[in-house]
Design brief:
By secondary structure, this protein is of the alpha+beta class. 16% of the residues lie in helices and 33% in strands. The relative contact order is 0.13.
């Protein structure tokens, strides 16, 4: 940038000096009288006698007069040209840090009550999972009145925003709550888009089967995302991701083992192999 700037200044200075010399020379050499206070000088800086200068045009470029040969030089091609440095590049000036904007974690003014309970019955295995697993999971979940799992959101009216999600086993009440093992973790909610998200390394055990002989399935990690409705009740576009550690390979769902249903492990929890299982759907509002 600096070298180009210096080159432009040098070129402009030379052009200005040449133009000024042309103006002075033109006034003298074409017979136009100089002011009485101006005395022409020669190339050495010494004052010269104007009477020694020729009276005809000495090819002052662009003055429109004929030169010594009698030709009009208004279109002469020996005029000095400015160097072409090409287009000046655009310069973007950015004020402040550059990066993606974070969520707007202002208080959730669209929420009127602090705690909501939602059913996860409508959040079912992702289409990408094996069909055998989807069928077995849904069969076990349908045996629990009111849904297999529930999601509880608390702190929805907190100032400053401090929202927690609890995922656990349904107690079957109305509205249902969680019973037994559960996992509670912080989530953030964008006050503008109502997008919710959070995760935890702390899992819990899903309890299922008969009440007299229940079974459990350990969940090692949880990730939750979705969008709250405008009235702050339902959670749509839910993505619930859990990891089932390989230690649960022989646990059964609807008569088949996890190993049989999911095949080889697809992920890991720490140093232990695991299955990454995703659920999609809508979590419907059940009550406060």
């Amino acid at each position: 940038m600096r070298s180009r700037f210096d080159a432009e200044v040098t070129a402009l200075t030379g052009a200005l000096a040449l133009a000024l010399s042309g103006i002075v020379g033109g006034c003298s050499k074409t017979g136009h009288p100089l002011p009485a206070s101006v005395t022409p000088a020669d190339d050495t800086g010494n004052v010269t006698d104007d009477s020694s200068l020729p009276t005809g045009d000495t090819d002052v470029v662009g003055d429109g007069a004929s030169d010594a040969s009698g030709q009009n030089d208004s279109t002469a091609t020996d005029a000095p040209t400015q160097p072409d440095f090409g287009p000046v590049p655009d310069i973007a000036i950015v004020d402040g840090p550059v990066g993606p904007k974070g969520p707007n974690v202002s208080p959730l003014t669209f929420c009127s009550t602090d705690t909501h309970t939602l059913s996860l019955a409508g959040v079912t295995p992702s289409p990408s999972l094996p069909q055998a697993f989807k069928d077995a999971w849904n069969a076990e979940a349908s045996r629990v009145s009111g849904g297999w799992l529930v999601l509880k959101l608390s702190g929805l009216t907190s100032t400053p925003q401090s929202v927690n999600a609890t995922i656990g086993n349904s107690d079957g009440k109305s509205p249902p709550g969680t019973q037994g093992p559960a996992s509670t973790f912080p989530v953030s909610v964008d006050a503008t888009t109502r997008a919710l998200g959070g995760s935890t390394q702390t899992g819990f055990a899903i309890v299922y089967g008969s009440t007299t002989s229940p079974s459990t399935l350990a969940i090692a990690q949880i990730g939750l995302a979705g969008t709250l409705s405008a009235d702050c009740k339902d959670l749509g576009g839910v993505s619930l991701v859990v990891k089932i550690p390989v230690s649960e390979a022989n646990k059964q769902l609807n008569g088949q083992t996890i190993q049989q249903l999911l095949g080889a492990p697809t992920d890991a929890v720490g140093t232990q192999d695991a299955w990454r299982v995703e659920f999609d759907g809508t979590a419907a509002y059940l009550g406060g």
